[in-house]
Design brief:
The complex is a heterodimer of chains A (about 850) and B (about 300).
Chain A (H helix, E strand, L loop, with lengths): L36 H8 L14 H30 L9 H36 L7 H20 L27 H29 L12 H33 L12 H35 L6 H14 L15 H13 L1 H17 L6 H24 L1 H7 L3 H31 L5 H27 L16 H28 L21 E2 L2 E2 L10 H4 L3 H7 L13 E5 L6 E6 L6 H17 L3 H22 L8 E5 L2 E4 L8 H31 L15 H25 L3 H28 L8 H32 L9 H30 L3
Antiparallel strand pairs in A: 1-2, 3-4, 5-6
Helix pairs in contact in A: 2-3, 2-4, 2-15, 3-4, 3-5, 3-7, 4-5, 4-18, 5-6, 5-18, 5-20, 6-7, 6-8, 6-20, 7-10, 7-13, 8-10, 11-13, 11-14, 13-14, 14-15, 18-19, 20-23, 20-24, 21-22, 21-24, 22-23, 23-24
Chain B lengths: L10 H33 L2 H7 L2 H29 L8 E8 L2 E6 L4 E4 L1 E5 L4 E7 L4 E4 L7 E3 L5 E5 L5 E7 L11 E7 L1 H12 L8 H12 L29 E2 L4 E2 L2 H9 L1 H4 L14 H12 L3
Parallel strand pairs in B: 1-5, 4-10
Antiparallel strand pairs in B: 1-2, 2-3, 5-8, 6-7, 6-9, 9-10, 11-12
Helix pairs in contact in B: 5-8, 6-8
The chains are: A mainly alpha (about 850), B alpha+beta (about 300).
Chain lengths: ~850, ~300
């Protein structure tokens, strides 16, 4: 291969012995490998068979199941689109009535967003990331499996609601007051709020796994700037989920509280405002679009170099562009609200920000064009889909600039022009790259390429079909056709354009069918796929077994397989790090987040039922709440909590099962660490970022409703807040619980485990007493959540603090039980550390919450 | 009938249409340019491909070019947006309230109320104030101006004028429930004198008709309880939860753009509104009124012009 050899070794001159990660050092492990080493590795990573198959956690299986389920929902939601196109083929059609049509478009949009696009990308992450990073698996495989099962079960039940007329019918954006109890009394809206609510939880679980996996599970020497761009994209993707999804989760909590208990967040007569929902929804909803697009862009940046056999031009620029897009996308949400009467000055700001986001996208498009120019393009199926992507996505991006223009958007907004735009962007920007990825990476799972003939045929059907469906919609929109209409009148000149769209939809559907046929005929998952048919340069093309790569290579460049043609053979022979199972359990090397230097060996849980039962419990809990089966929901909830505890008890914090192990190259690593090196610590920190973002949305709710009502009505006349002394005592008790945790830490360090558990339970008492005192004082004054948005906001705050108190309660009891069971000691203390992290956060949040309730209104001078 | 963004009937819509053409042509040119570069990357000569593959090309195409073009566009569109802003006061004020699934129209300075049809004198600056009586709707007449949302608890404003007489179609643009699709209305642009005559007719109280068949309709209208929801100016019936029916016979459509307006469609609507527009608020009257009564009510309402 005539590629420039950019071997960037780790500097070694200062070290007495060569750094085992440097390219000059000998390979970490010698030949021959000991007898039975490979067999032991295979045995440990074996996937369960038969009736135990649902317990599988290996990422290659969960990834494929996850992706398959997402594709199933894509097809189902696509069928709904076909019914809608049939209804709109001619004016004044009565194939489906208004009510069914409204359920169809709501469910279509919701499923495509929440059940297809985001899960499909998480699936690709779960499937590809360990292989690209040369990790044995992601750090929390049961968490991925839990996320998958909760999503699959919940998603199927959600989908089936269309068959008994209970599907949501208020649009995927669910604007109140249309979705309030008054205008949507049925359970349809609840299906959306609760059904989607926990699919969001599943998405967050996946995002935590992906962030920690990318930052902590890279192959030794794979510094951040040698990381494949797909990993960069997935890192930004997961970070965006962490900061965007809390807004919609908080919004759905508020709307469900309003629907179920009459707390008037969105009812103007009682101090609420429908626009509060729109801000929360679009603060999530706009980043959501980039959440879907960025991983796809990452895939494109992986596939093009392989297809043209040249390194990506402008790696650093593209990585910066991914970060920049993620950052900017949080400043655009108001561009969905240009017509709501927001002042012109704010609109100008959001218009400028919307323009700005086209710069990072422009960088990527030109980097891809440049890469194609430097290489030798091969028109294989993945490349066809990439070219189709560029055509469709660039067109959609340009109409995106158009709708960022305020006066134009006043016309185009909520018309078929926007339907055209968003499908160009999402199909072009996500579906085409995903299909390219499917054809490109299928051999890594099944060992053989899919059919070139069927793939080419599918590409042309899809390319023609998509353009034929959506291009005419620009025109019908400009001619006055709004979105979300189940019918349209004759004589407006819309007949031709709608008929073309319907024909196009059928053509595109045939294309999807062709891909499905190809998958059925040519795709079988096999453990141990070999070969690199497209000659990719990154680690997922190493020979793989159920244990992923036999040994974990040390990395010196971005395309190790191009720079070291012998690497695949070395890895397979077991000459790199950790060619065995050092502890006799599933394990992977944990590395430092930036330099990727080995830190410790993390033991990874294997197959189990606990997370599967937890997923069933979680899905059952939310779905039974939807249909108001409170007792059954409680039972499911209890099952979920019990299963999670069982899962934690048996699968986490195993302690130092061995002192340390050698992974080769003279490196010995501990198998148990307790500080900020531990993946569990990282996961907890990421979870707290989610939590903190949700609390920020809570604070935003207070601030927004205050602005709507004005100083004088915050609190409204006649509402008295309790004297400050009671909440002050409450705050002191809450703070004291955190102090007591430090005492517990001191006791644990000295080995007084039982005394520690007493201190923890005492701290629990203080926390509950403090929060309880605050709640009681508020209730005493006669403040109620239903009367005015002020009370609603205050009690939403109380609800959130109460939820945390409940979690701390469970954690404290769990910690005490671990202590009494002898599973906690001065060394084995990860459980204690993680509980303390969460607890400390809860205390800080409770104090901030009390300030919001008691000090903020007083600070207004009222 | 005008219903397209690209067939403007007044200066505001014309300005946006002009901006739209700029965007379409500019967008098309950039699209063709990018596709040309892609084609060159795939099959161009070695010199061109080497230049496209340089880091400089990414910075030029991905940063410099969009920053330049978009900065210019931003300045231009802010100018257009400023010109579309709210100007001096004292034009003709019109208030429109969106309701599931029809439009209440008020001329507060003239103290008249109508529904689903807005008459506007050409050449006069109009200040439109919109709000909602239930859920969020959006007021959109493409040939008039961009859309503006009707949000409960808020009043939004737009200012516009029309250049020439004609009929413009408008439609609700924010999904508002089951029959969002059947929530249209018409704007009638007419000369000042004609507009004033229309206002006069709208303001004149409706008297009980002399003609016996129409009088029978008047009577049946009252007995059936239509006045609980509908108002007819000058009569005892002053309900506000349904559209005002004064001058109903003169309107261009029935049920907010759902049906043509004539005797047969009106009688059919009164008899079975839930068959025609399921989910709207009007109950069926086929069991309340018998055939002759139904025809009489329809005939009387059609006579209000």
């Amino acid at each position: 291969m005539s590629l420039p050899n950019k071997m960037a070794g780790v500097p070694t001159q200062d070290l007495p012995t060569p750094d085992p990660l440097s390219a000059d050092a000998p390979l970490p492990n010698p030949l021959p490998r000991p007898e039975g080493e490979l067999e032991a590795l295979q045995r440990v990573w074996q996937t369960p068979r038969g009736w135990r198959f649902p317990t599988v956690v290996n990422n290659n299986w969960i990834g494929v199941l996850y992706l398959g389920t997402a594709l199933l929902f894509f097809v189902l939601a696509g069928c709904m689109a076909l019914v809608m196109r049939a209804q709109l083929a001619v004016p004044q059609n009565d194939l489906v009535g208004a009510e069914l049509y409204n359920q169809l478009f709501t469910t279509h949009g919701t499923m495509m967003m929440f059940l297809f696009a985001v899960p499909a990308m998480e699936a690709m992450g779960v499937y590809l990331l360990p292989a690209m990073l040369a990790a044995r698996d992601l750090p929390f495989p049961r968490l991925s499996a839990y996320a998958f099962w909760a999503y699959a079960i919940g998603g199927l039940v959600f989908f089936s609601s269309i068959f008994y007329g209970a599907a949501p019918n208020g649009g995927w954006f669910m604007y109140p007051p249309l979705t309030s109890k008054e205008y949507s009394p049925g359970i349809n809206a609840d299906f959306w709020l609760l059904g989607i609510g926990f699919i969001e939880i599943s998405a967050i679980a996946g995002a935590i796994e992906i962030v920690v996996g990318i930052l902590k599970n890279r192959a030794p020497g794979m510094t951040l700037d040698r990381m494949p761009l797909f990993c960069w994209a997935m890192l930004v993707f997961a970070a965006m989920i962490i900061f965007a999804f809390p807004a919609v989760i908080w919004g759905t909590i508020l709307l469900e509280l309003e629907r179920a208990f009459g707390w008037p967040f969105f009812i103007p007569e009682r101090g609420g405002d429908p626009l509060l929902w729109q801000h929360l929804f679009w603060f999530f909803g706009h980043p959501e679009v980039y959440i879907i697009f960025l991983p796809a862009a990452g895939m494109v940046s992986m596939i093009i170099p392989a297809m043209v056999q040249a390194r990506l031009v402008g790696y650093g620029l593209v990585a910066m562009a991914l970060l920049g897009t993620g950052f900017l996308s949080f400043g655009l949400w108001v561009h969905h609200m240009y017509a709501t009467g927001i002042p012109q000055l704010s609109l100008s700001f959001f218009s400028a920000a919307s323009f700005a986001v086209s710069v990072p996208t422009g960088i990527q498009v030109f980097a891809w064009i440049g890469t194609i120019a430097t290489g030798r393009p091969r028109l294989q199926v993945p490349m066809l889909f990439i070219l189709g992507f560029l055509f469709i996505f660039v067109l959609g991006g340009l109409t995106g600039v158009m709708v960022a223009v305020v006066p134009f958007d006043w016309q185009a907004h909520d018309t078929y022009f926007v339907v055209a735009h968003l499908h160009y962007v999402l199909i072009g920007g996500m579906v085409f790259p995903l299909l390219a990825a499917l054809y490109y990476w299928a051999p890594s799972a099944s060992g053989k390429t899919m059919s070139k003939r069927l793939g080419t045929f599918a590409f042309w059907l899809l390319f023609i079909g998509v353009n034929l469906t959506f291009f005419p919609m620009h025109i019908s929109g400009l001619m006055g056709m709004p979105r979300r209409v189940w019918t349209y009148p004759e004589g407006m000149g819309l007949e031709l354009w709608n008929m073309l769209s319907t024909i196009g939809a059928v053509v595109a559907a045939l294309g999807v069918a062709m891909v499905a046929l190809d998958l059925l005929r040519n795709f079988r998952v096999s453990n141990g796929a070999e070969g690199n048919p497209y000659n990719g340069g990154t680690l997922e093309w190493l020979p793989q077994g159920n244990y992923a790569a036999r040994s974990i290579p040390r990395i010196h460049s971005r395309e190790p397989l191009w720079d070291n043609p012998d690497l695949a053979e070395q890895v397979r022979a077991g000459r790199h790090f950790l060619p065995n199972t050092a502890t006799g359990l599933r394990e992977t090397i944990v590395t430092s987040p930036i330099e990727a230097r080995p830190q410790y060996i993390a033991i990874i849980p294997g197959p189990g039922w606990a997370h599967v039962i937890a997923a069933i419990g979680t899905a059952g809990f939310f779905l039974s709440l939807t249909v108001e089966w409170v007792w059954i929901a409680s039972a499911f909830g209890a099952v979920a909590v019990a299963a999670v505890l069982w899962w934690l008890w048996t699968g986490t914090d195993l302690g130092p099962v061995r002192d340390s192990v050698a992974i080769g190259g003279g490196i010995r690593l501990p198998v148990y660490v307790t500080d900020s090196r531990a993946v569990g610590w990282w996961a907890m920190v990421v979870l707290l970022l989610v939590d903190g973002t949700t609390f920020s949305c809570l604070a935003f709710t207070h601030g927004f409703l205050w602005l709507v009502n004005g100083d004088a009505a915050w609190p409204p006349a006649g509402t008295a807040l309790p004297e400050l002394v009671v909440p002050a005592v409450g705050a002191a008790l809450v703070a004291a619980s955190a102090v007591l945790l430090w005492v517990a830490d001191w006791l644990l360090r000295r080995g007084h485990v039982i005394a520690m558990s007493v201190a923890v339970l005492a701290a629990l008492g203080l926390l509950l007493a403090g929060l309880g005192a605050d709640l009681a004082a508020l209730w005493e004054t006669g403040l109620r959540p239903g009367a005015h948005s002020f009370g609603a906001a205050v009690f939403a705050n109380q609800f959130w603090q109460g939820l945390h108190a409940a979690l701390v309660l469970v954690m404290a009891l769990y910690l005490a039980a671990r202590a009494w069971a002898g599973l906690l000691d001065p060394t084995r203390r990860v459980t204690f550390d993680n509980v303390r992290l969460f607890w400390t956060y809860t205390v800080v949040q409770a104090l901030a919450g009390m300030a919001l309730t008691h000090l903020f209104p007083r600070g207004l001078g009222g | 009938m005008h219903h397209s963004v690209l067939s403007p009937m007044g200066p505001e819509a014309a300005r946006i249409a002009e901006l739209s053409w700029l965007l379409f042509l500019g967008g098309a040119a950039i699209f063709l340019l990018v596709m040309l570069l892609l084609a060159l990357a795939l099959g161009g000569g070695p010199g061109v491909r080497r230049r496209l593959g340089a880091r400089r090309a990414i910075l030029a195409g991905g940063v410099a070019f969009p920053v330049l073009v978009l900065s210019a566009l931003l300045v231009h569109t802010l100018g257009v947006a400023a010109a579309l802003g709210l100007g001096e006061p004292a034009p003709l004020r019109i208030e429109v309230t969106g309701r599931q699934y029809w439009w209440e129209v008020r001329y507060p300075d003239r103290e008249v109320v109508t529904a689903n049809e807005i008459h506007i004198p050409v050449g006069r600056a109009v200040e439109l104030l919109v709000d909602s009586g239930d859920v969020i709707h959006s007021f959109w007449v493409p040939s008039l101006h961009g859309k503006i949302d009707m949000i409960p608890g808020r009043v939004n404003r737009r200012r516009f004028s029309l250049d020439r007489p004609g009929v413009l179609r408008g439609q609700c643009a924010e999904f508002c429930g089951t029959q969002h699709a059947l929530m249209a209305f018409f704007v009638v642009a007419e000369e000042e004198a004609e507009f004033e005559r229309w206002l006069e007719r709208l303001r004149a109280p409706v008297a009980k008709p002399e003609e016996p068949f129409l009088a029978q309709g008047w009577q049946a209208f009252g007995q059936a309880g239509c006045g609980a929801c509908h108002a007819v100016r000058g009569t005892p019936w002053a309900g506000r939860s349904g559209p005002d029916l004064t001058l109903l016979g003169g309107r261009l459509s029935l049920a907010a753009g759902t049906l043509d307006n004539h005797l047969a469609t009106l009688a059919g609507w009164i008899a079975g509104p839930q068959d025609i527009k399921p989910g709207n608020r009007m109950p069926a009257f086929n069991t309340v009124l018998d055939g002759p009564e139904l025809r009489a009510v329809a005939a009387w309402l059609e006579s209000l012009r």
